[in-house]
């Protein structure tokens, strides 16, 4: 989905209730991951930066939902992601239904990304 929203709240308002709920939780995790995180819309998706460091982002695509994180943060969790039945690219975690993403695992990955931002 290519969002025309100019704010994260505007983006969230275009989603179904279930999609909005999972992305609102991810938004909260991303904002808590580092004290200097900034939130913006980049590439038409909610994006979270610490300076120039890309902490994470999320988006709704045509056939899936996606959490984008630094590959270095996600790499230690690849087996857990695979065991959860998630399709992963180098920096993205794809899931077709909001309930498919295990939030405790997403929280660990986002926390790891926040630690990398401090390097």
TrEMBL record:
Pfam families: DUF1801 (PF08818). InterPro entries: YdhG-like. Gene3D superfamilies: 3.90.1150.200. Residues 20-113 form the YdhG-like domain. This is YdhG-like domain-containing protein. It comes from Lacunisphaera limnophila.
